[in-house]
Write a structure and sequence with these properties.
By secondary structure, the chain is α+β, with helices and mostly antiparallel strands. It contains 15 helices and 19 strands. The radius of gyration is 27 Å and the shape is elongated.
């Protein structure tokens, strides 16, 4: 008998956990159907119909845009964007992955029942997802309006059980999905605001001017789909004497090392993982690095102030460069083994687990659905990593070390004002007590720095030991397995990178 899936039934036979939940679900549904709610028969069915296809929330958003303040308009737009994301997720991943039948509504009074029964599957509740997505997107930017909308959102969600079209768990799952969509939009909005900040105070560095690109070797990672013909044509036109080398896969580090050893400067076209490999080669060879953004996110290039390959071409031709700091992780209890480097972030725990699941599922269901499902799985599992942190035993759900101070909301924000800092931005989310749920609650009510499970500090060096064998690790978007011990530290002004003045 499967111990984790069954419990002993009251009549001697095994009963699955799914059966227990289903009986609870049906029992609560029937209890709501039998209960007479004063005024409910007049109000809740009408409220449920008003929220069909998001019309209620669209009307609220339109009213705020037309009559509200600038802050209210911004909040309304975030709420509408959150609703759109939640609705798209429910109608693609949610409805067609579970395929749960609608409840039998014989016990529901006829006055409550909708005139036309929904034809879609029951799990999750789209009305609940839309209501809580709109609330989550709107409330942080306009708390006053959030307080007004919150009872309305709860009432819409309850009306779906009251009218007999959803089970309680359908509503709870829809509400959770809506909150998740609102948090995603909130994060994207914060990053968009941070993206308008100008580059930081990195010091100028001597670098050779290569007007036609002579002496520059640019390695293009074709395996990640970054070899855009337009970028290659631009490099050929503006730096005609530069050597272009296309490669992919396991040969990339060797090709980068060879190019760095025989060139005046090393160029790279790819995403953050490819840039990380190129920076490692440039550091070891002692040559400047030219980054031609070619990935999906390009965090390092954005924080450096590069908007596209044209900026890098201009900087290489003029010989303008800056010095930036580099994060380093050295395996071994005393840091004696060969080091690795990170330009953006290093992390253990929840994020590497999420990344590993997303990479595994994305080829089958697509990047967006894979990221959503991976997030749900990680929040459900919430397995802490038990290790020694600076000599003390700790249980952490997430350990994040940034190459420089990151700004914005969340345990792993993505925008830096400067790449010249000499310290690591270290953030911890303590394990135990359902940290994922507590973080979501904190994100809805204010900055995560106020959460008791979240700690942020800046350090020059951090020693990690007793890391369980096989623990996932992620650095600059790359996924792997962590050593059982390592030392994290910062190399200030270690890397010379071309950037326009």
């Amino acid at each position: 008998m499967e111990q984790d899936a069954r419990v002993a039934g009251t009549h001697g036979g095994p009963v699955t956990w799914r059966g227990v939940v289903a009986r609870w679900d049906r029992g609560l549904f029937d209890a709501v159907a039998r209960r007479h709610w004063p005024g409910g028969d007049r109000v809740l069915p009408r409220l449920s119909r008003a929220a069909d296809h998001g019309l209620l929330w669209g009307g609220v958003a339109a009213g705020l845009v037309v009559f509200g303040s600038a802050r209210a308009r911004r909040a309304a737009l975030r709420g509408a964007a959150s609703l759109a994301l939640a609705s798209a997720t429910v109608n693609t991943v949610g409805k067609w992955s579970v395929r749960r039948a609608r409840p039998l509504i014989d016990a529901v009074p006829a006055v409550r029942q909708p005139a036309r029964q929904p034809w879609t599957t029951s799990f999750p509740s789209g009305h609940s997802a839309s209501a809580f997505a709109f609330l989550t997107g709107l409330a942080p930017a306009a708390p006053g309006w959030g307080a007004v909308i919150a009872p309305l959102a709860v009432s819409v969600a309850f009306s779906r059980v009251y009218t007999g079209v959803h089970y309680p768990t359908d509503v709870l799952a829809g509400a959770a999905l809506g909150v998740g969509a609102g948090l995603v939009v909130r994060r994207l909005a914060a990053e968009a605001e941070q993206a308008r900040i100008t580059p930081g105070d990195e010091s100028p560095a001597p670098a050779p001017a290569l007007p036609d690109g002579a002496g520059l070797t640019v390695v293009v990672n074709t395996g990640s789909g970054t070899a855009d013909p337009a970028v290659l044509d631009l490099l050929a036109a503006q730096l005609p004497a530069a050597e272009l080398v296309e490669c992919a896969g396991e040969e990339l580090p060797e090709v980068l090392a060879d190019a760095a050893a025989r060139s005046v400067a090393l160029g790279v076209c790819g995403g953050d993982g490819t840039v990380n490999a190129a920076a490692t080669a440039a550091l070891r060879a002692g040559v400047p690095l030219a980054v031609f953004p070619g990935g999906t996110l390009n965090h390092f290039a954005q924080d450096l102030g590069l908007t596209g390959p044209e900026d890098t071409c201009r900087a290489v031709a003029d010989g303008h460069a800056v010095r930036v700091g580099v994060g380093r992780f050295t395996p071994g209890p005393d840091g004696s083994a060969g080091p690795g480097y990170f330009l953006n972030t290093f992390s253990l725990g929840a994020y590497p687990e999420l990344l590993g699941r997303r990479l595994r599922w994305a080829p089958r269901i697509g990047g967006g659905p894979a990221a959503l499902l991976a997030t749900v799985q990680v929040l459900r599992s919430q397995h802490p990593v038990r290790l020694r942190l600076a000599g003390r035993a700790r249980s952490v759900w997430l350990l994040f070390a940034g190459n420089g101070t990151y700004h914005g909301t969340g345990p792993t924000p993505r925008r830096r004002l400067s790449l010249a800092e000499s310290e690591l931005d270290v953030r911890l989310v303590h394990g135990g007590g359902h940290p994922g749920i507590r973080l979501l609650a904190a994100a809805l009510t204010g900055p995560l720095t106020r959460s008791p499970v979240h700690v942020a500090t800046r350090l020059h060096t951090l020693h990690l030991a007793d890391i369980p064998e096989g623990t996932p690790v992620a650095y600059d978007g790359e996924y792997g397995r962590a050593p059982t011990a390592c030392v994290l530290d910062k190399l200030p002004a270690a890397l010379t990178v071309y950037r326009p003045r």
